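Subject: Sanity check before I submit

Could someone independently write out the structure tokens for this chain? I want to compare against mine line by line before I put it in a report. The sequence has 248 residues.
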Amino acid sequence: MALAMAGSAVGWQQSPPASQSQQAAPPAPQLPQAPTVPPAIASPPPQPAQPPRFVVVVDAAHGGSETGARLNGGALEKDITLSFSGRLRSTLRAHGIDVVMTRQGDVNLPTVNRAETANQAQSAACLTIHATATGSGVHLFTSSLSPTGNVRFMPWQSAQSAYVTQSLKLESEIDSALAHAEIPVSLARASVAPMDSMMCPEVAVEIAPLVAGHVTTGRAVTDATYQKSVVDALTAALEQWRSDWRQQ
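---
Independent answer below. Compare away.
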């Protein structure tokens, strides 16, 4: 019994603690993780630059108390220029050409305001419309200023000088279109307001009666058929000018 008890006592003894080499290894240190980078968002493809608008300024001369010339039949130049300009605007717009008019009613409009309208429009062409009782066909005028280079700040009184070369080219286009329509044309140079202050290719178009000849029928300035032929010729010239302007 004593042995048995002793054996039991021995059997209940606890095992000695495990050595240091047998203990569980400490957890491995955590490596720092790189910050999460959001996925890149694809940028939309660049849009092609919009071409500048082709704008024509039509300046109906005179207006209000400034009546201009008195034509045959008592018609006033200010009324002829306004009605003709409106017809020209409608035809140009029908051909996809944007038009800015300096005046749209019977109002006094200083020359400085006419030039400001043309310059703010950044137009590709400017036409000042006149009418006269003398001569025959259409008289075209460009500025008599000497051509100069285009600089950032131009004197107001001679701003057109930077555009004289282009104005002469525009005049040539109009001359060809009118000749094609069998309308007599005369060319001249002049230094007048608001032409000399306009920063655009500028031509003054003066409509005279059509004197009867071997290829023409006599017509008054107020004749609707005659006006339409001039409008159509100007439109053809400006369409060609637009084509040339886009290739510059």
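---
OP: Matches mine. For the report I'm noting this point. Residues 1-16 have pLDDT under 50 and may be disordered.
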